[in-house]
Amino acid sequence: FTPMLGSRYLPPHDRRHGRLYVLLERGFEKLAGAYDVTLRAVLRHGLAPVSYDHGTRVAALLLAQSPRVDAVFAVSDLSAVGIVMECQRRGLHVPRDLAVIGFGDFEIGREINPPLSTIHVDFHVLGQRAGLLIREVLQQDPPGKPRLIDVGISVMERESVGMQPIGMGAGHKP
Predict the structure, then answer these.
(1) What is the pTM of this model?
(2) 150 in helix, strand or coil?
(3) One-letter-per-residue 3-state SS of 22-87
(4) Cis peptide before 114 (omega within 30 of 0)
């Protein structure tokens, strides 16, 4: 599952905030509904587990179906890296031609060029909370009501969405 929604689908007043901010702040599906965008902008491909190879296949399908797409939010950093690499093999420049963001904040995303923007989740805290919740549920009789537990996420904005590294401002010459 690789949601994709480019900034061309957003009204002009939202473009000034940047693709990444708008997608994450409002939520992908909520945003799509708010602007009456059909979920045709969602490419569902393959089953878990996702992988680098999954990303390369998704990029090929995506570029064939929607060659003008300008942003991809991948379900995993591994598939996002595959998308970046497939774009590079095809001569596309990330982020100028296609902005890419992943999920997971895996080490490989920090090491590729350009470094991958991602959603960071503290999996250690997530595991601790899950374990405590399982213990709590097993001790309850009758079971408690379902609830939402926020484990927090962080946006790690890097160069794959157009963020320039420190020292690379408008006056910088490569």
Answers:
(1) 0.67
(2) coil
(3) HHHHHCHHHHHHHCCCCHHHEECCCCCCCCHHHHHHHHHHHHHHCCCCCEEECCCHHHHHHHHHHH
(4) yes
Query: For the sheet containing 99-103, what is the strand order?
Result: 71-73, 99-103, 117-121, 153-156
Contact 55, 46 (CB under 8 A): no
Nearest to 32 by CA among 14, 52, 59: 14
Bridge partners of 156, per DSSP, are 118
Q: CA 163 to CA 174: how far, in whole Å?
A: 16
Q: Copy the structure tokens of residue 38.
A: 């059909």
d(CA 172, CA 137): 56
Predicted confidence (pLDDT) per residue in 142-164, tens digit: 767 777 778 888 999 999 998 65
- List the Cα angle 29/151/135 in 5-degree steps: 120
What residues have CB less than 8 Å from 70, skipping those under 6 apart?
6, 7, 8, 19, 97, 98, 99
Residue 123's nearest CA partner among 135, 111, 110, 105 is 105
